[in-house]
Amino acid sequence: MHAPAHAHQHDGTRRPWAALILLSVAQFMVVLDITVVNVALPSIGRDLGIAGADLQWVVTIYVLLTGGLLLLGGQIADVLARRAVFLTGLSLFTAASLLSGLAESGGMLIASRAAQGIGAALLTPAALSIVTSYYTGAQRAKALGAWSAIASAGAAVGAVLGGVLTTWLSWEWIFLVNVPIGLTAGVLTLRVLPAMSSAAVARALDLPGALLVVSGLVVLVYAIDGAADHGWGSARTLLLGGLALALLAAFARVEARSRQPLVPPAIWRVRSLIGSAAVLLGVTGILVGTFFLNSLYLQGVIGASALETGLGFLPLAVAIGMSAHFASAAMPRTGSRVLVAVGLALTAAGALGLAAAPDRAGYAVDILPGLLAIGFGLGLVFPGVSVTALSRIEHHQAGLAAGVLSTAHEIGAALGVAVLAAVAAIGDATSAIDIAAGYEDGFIAAAGIALALAAVTITAVPSVKPEGTARAMAQ
């Protein structure tokens, strides 16, 4: 997700905001499709006959391929014409959305979601590259600020929109709604966005690295997915786990020898970035796993409708936004490490509160306090890890560092759902007994992950106090 210099950067011309609006709408669809599916999962499982243990793939395969291919997408956007790459990603995403909405089997839906993920991996870095090269100065700062706000807005709107569309129309429309938006955006792209050239120097694409990392992650998630049925110590789980580790080790070797690696070796030695990315990976997994488990619980145990479930997630999203605002204001005084550690402790407390919910819980008394604690906790974590991650990054590496964080975010979503779904071991997504038992186990695991991340934060992640342009580092 690099943004090489472009002629537009130096002419000082004020650019129209139409380009940002168009790119933001396309990115909004990509972000929204992470959470919009969660609320519809029970309906999808019933209609397509997908077992509870396999439902997580509807979420996982999308974010797994988006995250695994995001840095390759950034390379492609740097090498080829950015508008063409954006249009290719948008077209693939839109076509895959249509196929997802028309899916008649679980296999077809999961395959279509995989294609959506590949489209998103092309669309997102190309769009961000256009934003950073098309706008300059104060306009660029405003544009990037608006771009950053899309992620939290998309996650919140996705949960509610998923409930609205599933209740008033059908689950198919959570995908079909992307089609007219994508087609309109494609037509407007040719009218609004200028034809932007690629980087001045063509670079080789690290296709072997991208293939190895995606293959390793898919095998790893497949191993985790089957662990509940076959046992964590079974030959199947150990064999697949070993194969995943071998593929990821081969990825590391390829990266070390590649002339144009997805992530230059020097980046792996930046402790502030890698430590923060690890924490971000974990907390994103907790957040998306919270959506996943509560979507099944609220509808399968409490008996909430899809719309009520979507609205039930709004307090969580609001809590994240309020807490993130507080964290940004408090960080110059407290430092990032304190906020992140406190946020993770709050997240663990919220997860334990949800784990303690009775089999027939009430939303307001038993579920809402836990969701709020998780929301306020994660709201402290996200700004802290973002500021820390970029604190020791040179200006010319900012795009790459942002790509590493985005990759950690997407892969964390995939692994988080996979791990918590495997621990929950919900074999029948329509059985209230199965869902309630799995819900407790899943959130006990989430609390354990949050506490482990707190230990990592305290021992391995630097603390940053952003004071103006200075960076006060306290080791």
Quick structural summary:
By secondary structure, the chain is an all-alpha fold. 78% of the residues lie in helices and 2% in strands.
Q: Helical element count?
A: 17
Spell the H/E element sequence. HHHHHHHHHHHHHHHHHEE
Give the overall shape, derived from the CA principal axes. globular
Quaternary structure annotation: single chain
Q: How many runs of DSSP E, i.e. beta strands?
A: 2
Helical content band: over 70%
Trace the largest sheet across and list its strands.
Answer: 1-2
By secondary-structure content and strand pairing, the structural class works out as: mainly alpha
Q: Report how far the terminal alpha carbons are from each other.
A: 29 Å
Query: What are the segments in which pLDDT stays under 50 over at least 5 consecutive residues?
Result: 1-11, 468-475
Radius of gyration: 21 Å
Return the average pLDDT rounded to an integer. Answer: 79
Strand content: under 5%
Main sheet record:
2 strands, antiparallel
Notes on the structure:
The chain is an all-alpha fold. Helices cover 78% and strands 2% of the residues. The protein contains 17 helices and 2 strands. It has helices spanning 18-48, 56-79, 82-101, 106-134, 137-168, 173-176, 178-192, 207-230, 235-257, 265-268, 271-302, 306-312, 314-334, 336-355, 363-389, 398-424, 432-460, and strands spanning 463-467, 470-474. The protein has a two-stranded antiparallel ribbon with strand order 1-2. Helix 1 (18-48) runs antiparallel to helix 7 (178-192). It is globular. The model is unreliable at 1-11 and 468-475 (pLDDT under 50).
